Amino acid sequence: MGVRIETEESTVNAYLDGEIDHHCAPGIRSEIDMAVDAGSPEMLVLDFGEVTFMDSSGIGLVMGRYQVMKNIGGRVCLRNTPKHIKKVMHLAGLDKFANIL
Amino acid sequence: MVQIKNEMRISFRAESCNEALARSVVTAFVMQMDPSVGELADIKTAVSEAVTNSIVHGYRGTKGNVELLCRILENDVFYIRVRDRGCGIEDVAAAMEPLFTTAPEEERAGLGFAVMESFMDNISVRSSVGKGTSVIMKKRILSASLVKAGAAEDERC
């Protein structure tokens, strides 16, 4: 479980992988926030392509990053979201806050 | 009396690293019911929520164990009880309201019970302040019924 970060121009791409739960969410959160602090991007892309499991701890992670980006006038995009993770996101109403692709 | 076809109990320390352990053990037990990918994901997510609640809220700042009791009941029903001996919940109805959380600073979404209710067929919560909480969830594994129906059909052919 973890995250790989790539920053390009005004976008921070965070490629998440493995399982996202309450145990590993804080580590992922701090890595993303460090990249956002360093780059002040207009867009944060959270890529879920390699995520095999996510519970509501991941919802807290996404909503927290949404708030961080909102504070600097930026946006959040959720990309490559597997079907079962989309189900958790829709239940939480995340589609109201961010684009889920 | 509901017939119990198989049963498993496991107890582990209320440490966050054991959330993944709980999901793995329950997955291994449920696999004998031939669940679909979606059914298995639903169960794993619901179990993860219940176990996380015990660790984060039940045992906040204290030590203790979380106990899982898993059963396969008749008619392909999966049963799980997640029990802790933690602080208990004063108002269960309020705790089950979506977005209710006592830990917003940790980015807890307050959706644990909403996920459990949505992903399982039914849930009941018993809690006593100072004594702990039990969450009992059930889900019928529909794909298991379909596999059996398919096998019966094959025998007839």
**Average pLDDT of chain B:** 91
CATH topology of chain B: Heat Shock Protein 90
Outline type of chain A = globular
Terminal CA distance of chain B: 35 Å
- Gyration radius of chain A, in Å: 12 Å
CATH arch. level architecture of chain B: 2-Layer Sandwich
Give the number of helices of chain B.
5
Which CATH top level class of chain A fits?
A: Alpha Beta
Helix content of chain B: 25-40%
Which structural class do you get from the secondary structure elements of chain B?
Answer: alpha+beta
What name does the CATH topology of chain A carry? Transcription Regulator spoIIAA
Which ranges of chain B are low-confidence, i.e. pLDDT below 50, for 5 or more consecutive residues? none
CATH superfamily of chain A: STAS domain
Residue-averaged pLDDT of chain A: 93
Helix-strand sequence of chain B = EHHEEHHEEH
Question: DSSP helix count of chain A?
Answer: 3
- How much of the sequence lies in strands of chain A comes to 35-45%
- Coarse shape of chain B: elongated
Could you please describe the fold and organization of this structure?
The complex is a heterodimer of chains A (101) and B (157). Chain A is an alpha/beta fold and 101 residues long. Chain A has helices at 25-39, 56-71, 83-92, and strands spanning 2-8, 11-20, 43-54, 75-79, 99-100. Chain A is 41% helix and 36% strand. In chain A, helix 1 (25-39) links the parallel strand 2 and strand 3. The longest helix of chain A has 16 residues, at 56-71. The two termini of chain A are 21 Å apart. The relative contact order of chain A is 0.19. By secondary structure, chain B is an alpha+beta fold. Chain B has a single domain, classed as Histidine kinase-like ATPase, C-terminal domain (Heat Shock Protein 90), CATH 3.30.565.10. Chain B is built from five helices and five strands. Chain B has a five-stranded antiparallel beta sheet with strand order 1-2-3-5-4, covered by helices on one side. In chain B, strand 4 and strand 5 form a beta hairpin. The interface between A and B is medium-sized, with 23 and 25 residues.
